[in-house]
Amino acid sequence: MSLTVIVLAAGGGTRMKSKTVKVLHRIGGRTLLDHVLHAVHEVGPTRVVTVVGTQGEQVAAHVSKTYPDTSLAHQPVSTPGGPSVAYGTAYAVRVAIESLGTLEDGTVLVVTADTPLLQGAALKAFAAEHDAAQRAVSVLSGIVADPFGYGRIVRDADGDVEAIVEEKDATPEQREIAEINSGILAFDAAFLREALPRIGNDNAKGEYYLTDAVQVARDAGLTVGAHVIDDVMQTEGVNDRAQLAALGRELNRRIVDRWMREGVTVMDPATTWIEADVVLSPDVTILPGTQLLGATVVGEDAVIGPDTTLKDCEIGPGARVVRTHGELAVIGPDATVGPFSYLRPGTQLGARGKIGTFVETKNAVIADDAKVPHLSYVGDADIGEGTNIGAGTIFANYDGVKKHRTTVGKGARTGSNNTFVAPVRIGDQAMTGGGTVVRKDVPDGALAVSAATQRNLEGHAERRAAKLEREQVTRETTDPGLGPTDPGAGGS
Ligand code: UD1
Ligand code: CA
User: Fold this and answer.
1) DSSP state of 151
2) Cα of 89 to ligand 1 centre, how many Å?
3) What separation in Å is there between the alpha carbon of 186 and the centre of ligand 1?
């Protein structure tokens, strides 16, 4: 059976007060539209059409990257001062169908693009029920505490849907109805083809209402049913930034809850943020104030946090990452990072390795058992197995024009407060003295020292004290103003 899904996204979302079109705002690491398209794809559609209008180019450019199999239909939109153009959900569906050329027999599912909590399972159950009942139209409805603004579901004595009445067209009694139209509808394709041309715009808003298809079906003696969704938040829309934040928090609560059920320990769900595409393993522990973003993956028994932000990072099993900010970094099994580390893109730390306190890394491949424990910048570097980098080491990768790489071999021990001026290589088992500035390659097994030879001046402290004493005596005898008595204070 053919399933065509039409996603309505032509509205601009003026209440967002944003230069970004509403459906491209993000929660949980995905745009609102991508959350909906994700759910839609779980139903296994034959084809998906997204109707874009206001800032349609922005939306089209985005969808062609995230869901390239989705086709786009462009609905003309009114511009201030310009001619008014046809508007309304029924008109948008017409635009979608025209863009397809022909609409195959089967089922058409219409969904709105601003309901980010929608899940594939709910949509699938709704479509299945619609197909099984062989209805002309089915409405996914919900019972809400405050139905203001929604289309109300008016049922007849048999419980079938008699009408969907929009807020502005509703009588006071109809406004009391708590069952609302979620905006998600299923149609028999043949019926929809016939019904659309019969929908007019003679209503309070002067719009072509898709919900008027209910009346067309009833007039033709066809049945219209409604399927009440239990989890009504799945159909809640975003209209302003406050709702964006509220649904963002709710989405996060659901994601964190799901991972806890999968065996992840989350000490403080309220301060833990996990985006939709993150993947965690059982027995991961997440400490308070942690954000796991993008395509971050964390292996078994790893402990992340407190106060850590990781975006697109891969953390190996058993690793420990404390108070760290990381992006596009790969941390090996049983490695330790932090506290206070800054992992920039291209950081790779091997098994049991260490990136310690106040260490910044970028394009740095640090092998198994290698350690950069304290106060260092490691940029454009390869550090060999088991090597230890001394405290306060700077990998000087930039000569003011170009970036260069530094290689440190295996089993090396470099001193504190070193500077490695790239391009340079420090050999296997090599050592460097404290304060060394390495400008030339250090052969395997060599010790490099560059600081000036230290001289010790014996008896310096005594000589210095004697000199200070002499200077004091000279001052007292030559400058009366600094003398022990004040001539102005009752003197002789
Ligand atoms: C619509 C429903 C209402 C339902 C509510 C749920 C109709 C007539 N009303 O009302 O019963 O309770 O959704 O949120 O369907 N859109 C287009 N092109 C258009 C018009 C709208 O793409 O010409 C898109 C909008 O971008 C939006 C969706 O369709 O994503 C719904 O449109 P909107 O104007 O918000 O409808 P509501 O008045 O909320
Ligand atoms: Ca709406």
Assistant:
1) P
2) 6
3) 15
Active site residue 374: yes
Express each pLDDT in 9-46 by its tens digit: 998 789 999 999 999 999 999 999 999 999 999 999 99
Task: Tell me the angle at which helices 32-42 and 56-66 cross, rounded to the nearest 10 degrees.
Answer: 50
Hey, where are the domains in the chain? 2-235, 264-448
Tell me which architecture the domain covering 264-448 has in CATH: 3 Solenoid (2.160)
**Residues of the chain falling short of pLDDT 70:** 479-492
Task: Please tell me the distance from the alpha carbon of residue 73 to that of residue 51, in angstroms, as a whole number.
Answer: 5
Feature table: binding site for Mg(2+) = 114, 239
Q: CA Rg, the chain, in Å? A: 35
- State the chain's mean pLDDT as an integer: 95
**Cβ distance 231 to 254 under 8 Å?**
no
Spatial distance between the Cα atoms of 22 and 114, rounded to a whole number of angstroms: 8
Contacts within 8 Å (CB) and 24+ apart, 94-100: 94/196, 94/208, 95/51, 96/6, 96/49, 96/51, 97/6, 97/192, 97/193, 97/196, 98/73, 99/49, 99/71, 99/72, 99/73, 99/74, 100/4, 100/47, 100/49, 100/71, 100/73
The class that CATH gives domain 2-235 is alpha beta
CA 195 – CA 191 distance, rounded (Å): 6
Atom of ligand 1 nearest to the CA of 91: 23
